[in-house]
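Take a look at the protein record below with the fold in mind.
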Amino acid sequence: MQKIVSDPKIMMGKPVISGTRITVELILEKLAAGETPQQIQHKIVAN
């Protein structure tokens, strides 16, 4: 199973986490802003 996929029909082909519409770009931006992986995961699970 792939964790990161790219499909032109989902988010205009941007790489996303498999089974979601969460872009890799978004995760990298949050990490660059200082969020921890745990904080990001908590926000994703909470939604």
